[in-house]
């Protein structure tokens, strides 16, 4: 699943490719992707003749700011966007096509069909799903760490599960939670309420560092992720624990271990990350 760094990279590449273009037509080949409005023809009408002004992101969610409306797109597991000339062949699993006034297309491709799209009037997107259910992410200018620290220290859940909870802090998935906890020297099964304020601060600082580094590297390509120009991410070359089970820790040379935390594969160093 694309996490914050991948969605940020997609946002940056898409903004370069489509900013200022006007949508002239919209084709929807898999209606279930459209969650709001309920009527597909209304979805198409709302987007026609709208000019893309800028791209934004909240956590793992992509936002297209248009003239009068906002398109909110959650890529879920395998969603991806690409810009094509109108006469280029349409690849399998292309479910939504936005035609532009310059005879190019923005095409949404999703093998798993788990992605969602919502269109709202400008200014109402924050109070509607999915944004209304998302906390701020740690790379947002408006991010406030104190409420996150409080939520973590009040929770009896494992810190891994807390960091995956998008209502606490959005943007992190399995890859970056494992990397964050390794950098902060915190065991993934440690309960939030057992962490000191300094340890929680270390976790948040590690999350910011990890996410910023991953954005710089264009994200992480484990299976199929590519940005909107078809380029792979490179952060997988810097992974310290995720997917490294059995390999020596870069700090202490102990073997990286893999366990299940709430059903999620979780990687950590048993020496550097001691459970409290």
UniProtKB/TrEMBL annotation:
Cofactor binding mode and count: Binds 1 zinc ion per subunit.
SMART domains: Fapy_DNA_glyco (SM00898), H2TH (SM01232)
Keyword flag Zinc-finger: yes
Family annotation (InterPro entries): FPG_cat, FPG_Glyclase, FPG_N, H2TH_FPG, Ribosomal_uS13-like_H2TH, Znf_DNA_glyclase/AP_lyase, Znf_FPG/IleRS
Catalytic activity: Hydrolysis of DNA containing ring-opened 7-methylguanine residues, releasing 2,6-diamino-4-hydroxy-5-(N-methyl)formamidopyrimidine; 2'-deoxyribonucleotide-(2'-deoxyribose 5'-phosphate)-2'-deoxyribonucleotide-DNA = a 3'-end 2'-deoxyribonucleotide-(2,3-dehydro-2,3-deoxyribose 5'-phosphate)-DNA + a 5'-end 5'-phospho-2'-deoxyribonucleoside-DNA + H(+)
Known function: Involved in base excision repair of DNA damaged by oxidation or by mutagenic agents. Acts as DNA glycosylase that recognizes and removes damaged bases. Has a preference for oxidized purines, such as 7,8-dihydro-8-oxoguanine (8-oxoG). Has AP (apurinic/apyrimidinic) lyase activity and introduces nicks in the DNA strand. Cleaves the DNA backbone by beta-delta elimination to generate a single-strand break at the site of the removed base with both 3'- and 5'-phosphates.
Active site location: 2 (schiff-base intermediate with dna), 3 (proton donor), 60 (proton donor), 264 (proton donor)
UniProt keywords, alphabetically: DNA damage, DNA repair, DNA-binding, Glycosidase, Hydrolase, Lyase, Metal-binding, Multifunctional enzyme, Zinc, Zinc-finger
Protein known as: Formamidopyrimidine-DNA glycosylase
Domain Formamidopyrimidine-DNA glycosylase catalytic: 2-115
Sequence similarity: Belongs to the FPG family.
FPG-type domain segment(s): 240-274
Any GO BP annotation: base-excision repair
Gene that encodes it: mutM
Enzyme Commission number, as recorded: 3.2.2.23, 4.2.99.18
UniProt binding sites for DNA: 93, 112
Cofactor dependence: Zn(2+)
Assembly behavior: Monomer.
GO molecular function: 8-oxo-7,8-dihydroguanine DNA N-glycosylase activity; class I DNA-(apurinic or apyrimidinic site) endonuclease activity; damaged DNA binding; double-stranded DNA binding; zinc ion binding
């Amino acid at each position: 699943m694309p996490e914050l760094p991948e969605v940020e990279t997609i946002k940056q590449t898409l903004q370069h490719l489509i900013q200022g273009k006007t949508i002239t037509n919209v084709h929807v080949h898999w209606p279930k992707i459209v969650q709001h409005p309920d009527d597909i023809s209304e979805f198409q009408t709302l987007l026609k003749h709208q000019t893309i002004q800028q791209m934004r992101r909240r956590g793992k969610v992509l936002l297209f700011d248009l003239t009068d409306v906002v398109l909110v797109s959650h890529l879920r597991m395998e969603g991806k966007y690409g810009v094509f000339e109108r006469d280029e062949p349409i690849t399998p699993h292309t479910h939504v096509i936005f035609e532009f006034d310059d005879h190019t297309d923005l095409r949404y491709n999703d093998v798993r069909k788990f992605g969602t799209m919502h269109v709202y009037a400008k200014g109402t997107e924050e109070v509607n799903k999915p944004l209304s259910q998302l906390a701020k992410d740690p790379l947002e200018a408006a991010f406030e760490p104190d409420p996150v620290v409080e939520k973590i220290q009040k929770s009896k859940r494992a810190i891994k599960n807390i960091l995956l909870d998008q209502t606490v802090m959005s943007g992190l998935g399995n890859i970056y939670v494992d990397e964050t906890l390794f950098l902060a020297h915190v065991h993934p099964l440690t309960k939030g309420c057992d962490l000191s304020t300094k340890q929680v601060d270390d976790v948040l600082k590690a999350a910011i560092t990890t996410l910023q580094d991953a954005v710089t590297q264009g994200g992480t390509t484990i299976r199929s992720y590519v940005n909107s120009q078809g380029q792979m991410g490179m952060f997988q070359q810097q992974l310290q624990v995720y997917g490294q089970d059995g390999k020596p820790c870069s700090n202490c040379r102990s073997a990286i271990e893999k366990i299940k935390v709430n059903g999620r594969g979780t990687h950590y160093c048993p020496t550097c990350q001691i459970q409290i």
